[in-house]
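User: tokens in, sequence out, please.
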């Protein structure tokens, strides 16, 4: 196994609380409606731009998106990504494993999180929802990342925190890893379908990858 492709939100970045805050603030500001975490998760699939375009009148799109990005960026200064995630990425990088991201979030918000939390140096490729025609559970993003990395299915795994991640990995012919190692993830119960492997501890996953 030479290549690991990760989902981003809820997998290698503890960004879901930040996303919830930014969407909740935006919907309150522009719709005067309160959205719960569960209601926001139910909107996932499109990028942030797509979600806001689906929920808001056309004249509000630009201002709402600017508001979302402002709140989302500011939240990174209040919250830090878990140190054990960085330790995992350090160990995998040192071991010579190439890593990539396949995420449904948009390029702008992905770049914000990668920059604000200093994660960009770990990943050789980042495929966002803006760069695919078909989002997860379709495997298009995974295929694109593998092509850019020169990776084969036999030497690649896909790691994520949602059913869509497992489905996308399977559709791409990869072994799949479901994770629930952050406090807030998209999947609180059992995965459906079940991934090939399941981890709730970052260090246990790292040890498994490195054969310890």
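Assistant: Sequence out:
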């Amino acid at each position: 196994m030479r290549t690991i492709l990760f989902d981003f939100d809820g997998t290698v970045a503890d960004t879901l609380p930040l996303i919830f805050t930014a969407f909740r603030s935006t919907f309150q500001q522009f719709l005067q409606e309160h959205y719960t975490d569960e209601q926001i998760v139910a909107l996932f699939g499109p990028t942030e731009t797509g979600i806001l375009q689906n929920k808001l009148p056309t004249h509000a799109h630009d201002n709402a998106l600017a508001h979302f990005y402002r709140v989302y960026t500011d939240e990174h200064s209040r919250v830090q990504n878990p140190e054990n995630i960085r330790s995992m990425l350090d160990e995998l990088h040192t071991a010579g494993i190439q890593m990539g991201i396949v995420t449904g979030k948009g390029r702008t918000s992905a770049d914000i999180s990668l920059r604000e939390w200093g994660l960009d140096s770990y990943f050789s490729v980042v495929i966002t929802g803006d760069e695919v025609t078909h989002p997860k559970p379709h495997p298009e993003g995974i295929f694109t990342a593998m092509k850019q990395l020169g990776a084969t299915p036999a030497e690649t795994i896909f790691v994520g925190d949602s059913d869509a991640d497992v489905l996308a990995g399977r559709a791409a012919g990869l072994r799949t890893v479901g994770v629930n190692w952050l406090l807030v993830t998209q999947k609180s119960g059992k995965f459906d379908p079940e991934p090939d492997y399941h981890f709730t501890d970052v260090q246990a996953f790292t040890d498994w990858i490195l054969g310890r």
